[in-house]
Structure formats: structure tokens, C-alpha cells
Amino acid sequence: MNKVFNYLIKSILAGIMIGIGGTVFLSLENKVLGAIFFSIGLFMILTNGMSLYTGKVGYILENDLKYLIEVFVTLFGNFIGTFFTGYLLKYTRIYPVICAKAQSMCTIKLDDSPVSIWILSIFCGLLMYLAVNGYRVSKDTLGKYTSVFLAVTVFILCGFEHSIANMFYFSVAGMWSVKTLDYTLVMVLGNAIGGILIPLFEKQKLYLGDGKSSV
User: What's this model's pTM, rounded to 2 decimal places?
Assistant: First the structure.
């Protein structure tokens, strides 16, 4: 029980970090700068041992049922952290600015088709796995941090859907509904599929990545 509680705390903290990353993204007019600084969320999560759903789901194929439970606890904790952060920001002076941008973003997402959201979520999950795995396997510090910042920046600029980040945006925008929950579930599943693609290929010996260039 203590382990589950520990997972939950680390997950809530990770949700808060994503909320902070989302806040700086919403606060900056320059989309490129916003995408770069959003990366601070994943950077702080990885360097402080926190738990993020999109960082953990890619490893479910190589773990047991206990790990799967940990992933679900992480997802729940991430939601609490992002929702809590979005809720608190409503009582700050920056809220009118970030709320307007969040509502605009969320309207676009909710007007999109489920298939489009699902595909964009898969690509995001793939990049998130590459970011986290690059951080784990890189031997040098530059390689670790570059994989994090590049992958996160690219998925934002491409418009790919990150389920946890969107939990924060929906919370700031005050746009939770049955449809929002349905779309969030599509994002969660899409992120999972994208996250396990490379591990699945490796498991089937279709791709054996060793971190070395074959070009």
C-alpha cells in the first residue's frame, strides 16, 4: 500500500510539472519558444524521479501486472496534478490570458474527429517514448537532455496530442464534459499505442535499436 501511495504522490507531482510546462506555453506568444520551454515539465520529471503516464506506458510489454497497475495509478495521479494546477491558476492574475488561449486550443481539439485525435496521439506517444528512452540509455549528459527537449518541442510544434498536457489545458479552460472525457480516453489509448510501437518491434525482433547509427 505504501508503494501505491508513493506512486500516486510522484504522479501528482509529475502532473503539476506538466501543468507548469503548459502554463509557460500558454503565457508565451511565440509558439516555438513556448514549445521549447514546455520541455521543462518532462525535464523536471525525469531528473527528480517523478512518474508520468506517457513516460511509463512504453515499458508495459517488458513488465508484469504490478507495473500495469502502477501505470494506471500514474495516470490517475497525473490527472489530479494537472487538474489541481489548472484550478489554482484561476485565482491568479495570469489566468485571463492563459484561459483565453487554452479555450481556443481546446475548442480546436474538441471540434476534431476522434480518428484524427487518435492518430495525433499515437505520434505523440512515439516521441514521448523516444524522449524518455533516450534519457535512460544515453551515456552522455548532452544526449540525455537533447532527446528530451527535441522530442517534446517537436510533438508540440506538430500539433500531436499529449493526454496529460491536455488534461491541464481542459482544466484551465474549464471545458470538462462527457465529450472531453471521451476524447481524453482516445488520447490516453493513442499515447499508449505510440509508446509501445518500438518496444513491440524490438520484442518481435523486427527492430533492434542499440543507440548506434547505421547510416
Answer: 0.93
